[in-house]
Design brief:
In the C-terminal section; belongs to the protein kinase superfamily. Ser/Thr protein kinase family. It catalyses: L-seryl-[protein] + ATP = O-phospho-L-seryl-[protein] + ADP + H(+); L-threonyl-[protein] + ATP = O-phospho-L-threonyl-[protein] + ADP + H(+). With 674 residues, the protein is an alpha+beta fold. The chain has 3 domains: 22-276, Jelly Rolls (Sandwich); 326-419, Phosphorylase Kinase, domain 1, CATH 3.30.200.20; 431-619, Orthogonal Bundle (Transferase(Phosphotransferase), domain 1). The chain is 24% helix and 22% strand. The protein is built from 14 helices and 25 strands. The protein has helices at residues 2-23, 290-296, 299-316, 338-344, 387-397, 430-435, 444-464, 519-523, 528-544, 560-569, 587-600, 611-619, 642-649, 655-660; strands at residues 27-30, 38-42, 45-46, 52-55, 62-67, 71-72, 86-96, 105-111, 141-146, 160-165, 172-175, 177-180, 185-188, 197-204, 209-216, 227-230, 240-248, 254-264, 353-357, 360-366, 373-380, 408-414, 417-423, 479-481, 487-489. Strand 14 and strand 15 form a beta hairpin. The chain is globular, with a radius of gyration of 30 Å. Residues 10-23, 76-82, 499-507, 628-657 and 659-674 have low confidence and may be disordered. The structure holds 2-acetamido-2-deoxy-beta-D-glucopyranose (7 copies).
């Protein structure tokens, strides 16, 4: 039987090949990933060119790629061969969506599992989540290439390499640079420059030293590592571990690519063959780098283009005129050209108008070069005074990164006006959901989640960033809803515009009537406590579905806080709930929100909780102190200060009011309505 013996022969050969592969499973090399059998999840995919794309420029995504077969790190071997060494070499590139604004970076990882479905993206890099970050049970080693400074993980800057053992707080890290032996010095590298680079990770088990080295793609491996850190990995790694990559984007995104990868657990990893690596996709057109365009287009076309641009520029010069001063060059990376914004918003057409608020009109737009959707806020600003400080502040606000903040992308200045460019939020502002007759209304599930979102954004501004940022205008119309109805706080720090000279009376209280803490009228000074007050009013707003001030209402109903307080005192707090919810809510959550709202909107600043406590109450990690009956307000856990007991004593006999008429009192309990 010729045919069957041939088949047998073939099978034997195949199984032989299989065996030889299996023997080599602890080492591999990919010069491009065409046909590679990797385990991919999330946004990760292998492009037809063989490029491994961990994330594209979609926001808030993560992607993982693993070598399918676990690497056996033989720890049982013996004392003579301690934990084996390993070595890896990879070529990667990070291409930000907008120049200098990036997603979070990528990491080479060694992990006991390929399942990272519970991990979150953003600053967690798709590696951990808030509850398992730092746990020794993770058994994860990551070499992070991090492009964002996250103070919560003690990051050193927004361009570093770090060694992470079970935690995003790196055991060691360094700004990205490589040692050039020809020049005898370190040369710094920007991860975000979009060019391919190489990373080498070498572990010397007997000496318990982990070396990490980075260099531009076409350079030989530098002979001095960037990091050479003592780490005893035998303590962390298990016998069978997967090796691969993790990457994540946040409110702003980057393409994260891996071009090639070699790995070896029994010797130094082979060098990649640079010429075989897949090319990166053509660079996005950016105004900073016209040279890319020039290379691609024939000269005639360029001349023509320049002529057209020149002609258009000449004609439109006035139309697109901007104000740009000497001191501003430092902020060029965050500057948008007026022309781009003009084109993006179709000439600030009424049709593109998203809304008009206290600070100006907001337009929807699509950036011509990158198709990124944006929201442009146009603020008229006549004064020149204080501009320098304000622009500096915009630059620092742009560095605020949190999944529940509307990301500020940059600015532009013209005569008499200032334009701020933000991430576009497809679902618009929350007040439209709360106060319109739109059906179905925003469910309690979403409302409660949005409350937590906004609380976590405020906590970040107050406590988690490098400096305290006051919002000063927390309210439902400043909360925007993104594509999946999560809440994002917008307009942070904008109130400062008034401090920088626009308004000569700098004592002017910024904020919105109904959300202003009583002490603001006396001191005029905004504090984290005044933000908490406004957040309290916002919580009540979400529960009651009414505006904080209702000037058409009965006198005693004008202030929502007083009105809710009245019901609470009568033990009927659940009567204030938004009828549009039609009774579908969790009673415990609703009660928590109403009572916590009242606590936050307490007239005495000292009685208000801090945002960290608010977060703990909302998460249910700490239970809200049981509020005592009637007059003895909030005294169960907060020791009453003198002020507080004054407050309590000035309303001695409240219980009588309920029976007569719940709302008969014209005595304002909380003096919010000024
Ligand atoms: C990213 O990839 C996903 C699917 O893999 C796709 O839906 C999305 O449109 C892509 N985003 C961009 C910005 O290309
Ligand atoms: C681990 O090391 C021991 C002792 O050297 C050896 O007997 C065993 O075969 C090794 N296991 C693997 C999976 O290499
Ligand atoms: C975090 O991840 C761990 C393990 O992957 C999972 O068990 C846990 O439920 C996650 N926690 C949260 C808050 O998502
Ligand atoms: C180069 O960087 C390494 C690692 O950060 C550092 O130890 C070394 O001192 C630097 N060398 C020079 C010449 O600056
Ligand atoms: C790590 O770096 C040190 C310092 O340059 C060097 O002596 C050592 O040989 C390196 N080890 C490995 C495994 O590359
Ligand atoms: C792994 O190391 C061994 C021993 O130095 C070497 O022969 C082999 O080519 C290496 N393999 C890879 C894929 O780097
Ligand atoms: C990005 O920022 C760096 C340093 O902050 C600066 O040197 C560089 O010019 C900026 N690049 C672009 C394209 O804006």
């Amino acid at each position: 039987m010729g045919a069957s013996s041939r088949a047998f022969f073939l099978l034997t050969i195949l199984s032989l090949i299989h065996v030889s592969l299996a023997q080599d499973q602890n080492q591999f090399i990919y010069n491009g990933f065409q046909g590679a059998n990797l385990h991919l999840d999330g946004a990760a995919k292998i492009l037809p060119s063989g490029l491994l794309e961990l994330t594209n420029t979609s926001k808030q995504i993560k992607g993982h790629a693993f070598y399918q077969i676990p690497i056996s790190f033989n720890r049982s071997s013996s004392i003579s061969i301690p934990f084996p060494s390993f070595s890896t070499n990879l070529a990667f590139a990070i291409v930000p969506e907008l120049p200098n604004l990036s997603g979070h970076g990528l990491a080479f990882i060694i992990s006991p599992t390929m399942d990272f479905s519970q991990a979150v993206g953003g600053q967690y890099l798709g590696l951990f989540n808030i509850s398992n970050n730092g746990l020794p049970t993770n058994h994860v080693l990551a070499i992070e290439l991090d492009t964002i400074l996250n103070p919560e993980f003690a990051d050193i800057n927004n361009n570093h390499v770090g060694i992470d053992v079970n935690s995003l707080k790196s055991v060691d890290s360094a700004p990205v640079s490589y040692f050039s032996s020809e020049e005898g010095k370190n040369i710094s590298l920007r991860l975000l420059n979009g060019d391919p680079m190489q990373l080498w990770v070498d572990y010397d088990a007997p000496r318990e030293v982990l070396n990490v080295t980075v260099a531009p793609l076409r350079r030989l491996k530098p002979n001095r590592p960037l990091l050479s850190t003592p780490v005893d990995l035998s303590q962390f790694l298990l016998e069978n571990m997967y090796v691969g990559f993790s990457s994540a984007t946040g409110p702003v995104a980057s393409d994260h690519y891996v071009l090639g990868w070699s790995f070896n657990s029994s010797g130094p990893a082979q060098n990649l063959e640079i010429s075989k690596l897949p090319p990166l996709p053509p660079k996005r057109k950016t105004s900073q780098k016209p040279s890319n365009v020039i290379i691609i287009l024939p000269i005639a076309a360029i001349v023509f283009l320049i002529m057209v641009i020149g002609a258009v520029y000449f004609v439109r010069r006035k139309k697109y005129a901007e104000v740009r001063e000497e001191w501003e060059t430092e902020y060029d990376p965050q500057r948008f050209s007026y022309k781009d914004l003009y084109i993006a918003t179709k000439g600030f057409k009424e049709k593109e108008l998203l809304g008009a608020g206290g600070f100006g009109k907001v337009y929807k737009g699509t950036l011509p070069a990158s198709d990124v959707q944006i929201a442009v806020k146009r603020i008229s600003h006549d004064s020149h005074q204080g501009m320098k400080e304000f622009v500096a502040e915009i630059a620092s606000m742009r560095r605020l990164r949190h999944r529940n903040l509307v990301q500020l992308l940059g600015y532009c200045r013209r005569k008499g006006e200032l334009l701020l460019v933000y991430d576009y939020m497809p679902n618009g502002s929350l007040d439209k959901f709360l106060f319109s007759n739109r059906t179905p209304t925003l469910s309690w599930f979403h409302r409660f989640r949005v409350l937590k979102d906004v609380a976590s954004a405020l906590l970040y501004l107050h406590e988690e960033w490098e400096q305290v940022v006051l919002h000063r205008d927390v309210k439902s119309s400043n909360v925007l809803l993104d594509a999946d109805l999560s809440g994002r706080l917008g307009d942070f720090g904008l109130a400062r515009l008034y401090d920088h000279g626009t308004n000569p009376q700098t004592t002017r209280v910024v904020g919105t009537v109904g959300y202003l803490a009583p002490e603001l009228s006396k001191t005029g000074r905004a504090t984290t406590d005044t933000d908490v007050f406004a957040f309290g009013v916002f919580m009540l707003e979400m529960a009651c579905g009414r505006r904080p001030m209702d000037l058409q209402g009965l006198p005693e109903e004008v202030s929502m806080v007083d009105w809710v307080m009245g019901y609470w005192r009568c033990g009927a707090i659940l009567d204030v709930i938004d009828p549009k919810l039609e009774g579908t809510y969790l009673v415990e959550e609703m009660e928590l929100v109403l009572k916590l709202g009242l606590l936050c909107a307490h007239p005495m600043p000292a009685m208000r909780p801090k945002m960290r406590q608010v977060m703990q109450y909302l998460d249910g990690h700490v239970s809200l102190p049981e509020i005592q009956d009637g007059g003895t307000v909030f005294t169960s856990t907060f020791a009453p200060s003198n002020g507080a007991s004054d407050f309590v004593m000035s309303f001695p006999s409240l219980s009588g009011k309920c029976s007569a008429n719940l709302l008969s009192s014209n005595e304002s309990i909380f003096h919010t309505g000024r």
